[in-house]
């Protein structure tokens, strides 16, 4: 029987070949999401990082921050990031996400998309320190943005688009990173800010 109480709080499967995806569209309700978004905007040490793309230094088209257990260094786009220590808000969201996903996480990458011109290009979260089939839990607040997925080899499969709403939780597991790339493209319509947190487990 359909659960009439399920208003998007629980993870539901998203059918996709060579992937394991679940989404809870309203993991957090609107009031809680607004409070968490506000706290994160204020408390996180947001930076616009310089990264190397094809040997050339560029500014990332978004703000970001890296928090986690001490010593869990993360390498990304030719740079090394040392994590900042967990804040109470991040620990609270991590506890909620660990309970809902059944996985543990020791670090979180945060992105702040200031408006429609901020984006993240096509990539997989396939850094060696995440292991071969990482579980990555992604929480979004603020403006709904399109999370695009494109298969790395199967050109016959269409790209898909998952709108990640305020308060949503997306869980990517299994072959998702080894078989698919993802991106959050710029939007043509003006839009407000969005914060995304991706919880990860950096292995020894
Ligand atoms: O903002 C998002 O939804 C995705 C961010 C992302 O792919 C990443 O941080 O690796
Ligand atoms: Fe990613």
From TrEMBL:
| One Pfam family hit | 2OG-FeII_Oxy_2
Q: Name one GO molecular function term.
A: dioxygenase activity
| Organism field | Noviherbaspirillum aridicola
Q: Which PROSITE patterns match?
A: FE2OG_OXY
- Under which name does UniProt file this protein? Alpha-ketoglutarate-dependent dioxygenase AlkB
Residue span(s) of domain Fe2OG dioxygenase: 104-203
What keywords are assigned to this protein? Dioxygenase, Oxidoreductase
List all membrane-crossing ranges.
Answer: none
Establish whether keyword Oxidoreductase is in the entry.
yes
């Amino acid at each position: 029987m359909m659960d009439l109480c399920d208003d998007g709080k629980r993870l539901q499967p998203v059918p996709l070949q060579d992937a394991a995806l679940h989404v809870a569209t309203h993991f957090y309700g609107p009031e809680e999401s607004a409070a968490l978004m506000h706290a994160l905007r204020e408390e996180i040490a947001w930076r616009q990082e310089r990264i190397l793309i094809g040997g050339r230094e560029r500014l990332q088209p978004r703000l970001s921050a890296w928090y986690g257990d001490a010593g869990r260094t993360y390498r990304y786009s030719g740079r090394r990031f040392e994590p900042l220590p967990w804040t109470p808000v991040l620990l609270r969201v991590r506890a909620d996400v660990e309970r809902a996903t059944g996985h543990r996480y020791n670090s979180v990458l945060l992105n702040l998309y200031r408006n429609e011109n901020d984006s993240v290009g096509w990539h997989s979260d396939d850094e060696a320190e995440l292991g071969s089939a990482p579980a990555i839990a992604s929480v979004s607040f603020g403006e709904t943005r399109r999370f695009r997925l494109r298969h790395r080899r199967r050109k016959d499969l269409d790209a898909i688009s998952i709108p990640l709403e305020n308060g949503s939780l997306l869980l990517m597991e299994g072959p998702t990173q080894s078989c698919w790339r993802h991106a959050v493209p710029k939007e043509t319509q003006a839009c407000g800010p969005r914060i995304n947190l991706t919880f990860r487990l950096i292995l020894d």
